[in-house]
Automatic annotation (TrEMBL):
It comes from the Eukaryota. Keywords: Cytoplasm, Detoxification, Transferase. Belongs to the GST superfamily. Tau family. It catalyses: RX + glutathione = an S-substituted glutathione + a halide anion + H(+). GO terms for molecular function: glutathione transferase activity. Residues 91-213 form the GST C-terminal domain. It is an enzyme of class 2 (transferase). Residues 5-85 form the GST N-terminal domain. Its main location: cytoplasm. GO terms for biological process: glutathione metabolic process; toxin catabolic process. InterPro entries: Glutathione-S-Trfase_C-like, Glutathione-S-Trfase_C_sf, Glutathione_S-Trfase, Glutathione_S-Trfase_N, GST_C, GST_C_Tau, Omega/Tau-like, Thioredoxin-like_sf. This is glutathione transferase.
Amino acid sequence: MNQEEQVQLFGLWGSPFSKRVEMVLKLKGISYEYIEEDVYVKKSDLLLNYNPIHKKVPVLVHEGRSIAESLVIVEYIEDTWKTSYPMLPHDPYERSMARFWAKYVDDKVMLTLWKACWGPESEREKMVEEAYEGLKHLEEELGDKQFFGGETIGFVDIAADFIAYWFGIAQEASGVMIMTVEKFPKLQRWSQNFVGNSIIKEVLPPKQKLMALFKAQFGNNASN
């Protein structure tokens, strides 16, 4: 059995974190077995065995060994399958910058965007301001490039998948409009390029299903 036949991914259909890993596997042409986890009802014994610390998805299993945390998994895939569709630049400085912006998206921007749409009403004004600031930095970093990775989808683009797809649906579901084409034309163009990629499109969850999930889980917050 070769490396590709030994890859399993434990994920959740609507999770941007799980989808990050799926996107990279697909872009690199790596065959894998996908195992859907209903983490909100009952986590499987396999998931708890493979990720006993965080007990959440995504988890990649390769040759019987498990790796958790989406961006850690993406880097593992990059290091293991180096020759097919590189996700990180070869230059050490550029690699460091890609990691910096991916971490900025993960630690700062995503949470702020989510709270701007669904957070307590008392915090929303502040969160919206912080969301604008975070997106402004990303808009400046993107510049006139097609993707954060240049001409092709790279590490930062994958890290920002929530911004490219999920956030637009969250804005529509919550009625809070932040990333508009008037304020962030470059990010909007990037979002269309990213979502329009045939491989990425294949992985994305259905919009209406996500919309229904957001409204069911967070609709009350949006109306407070």
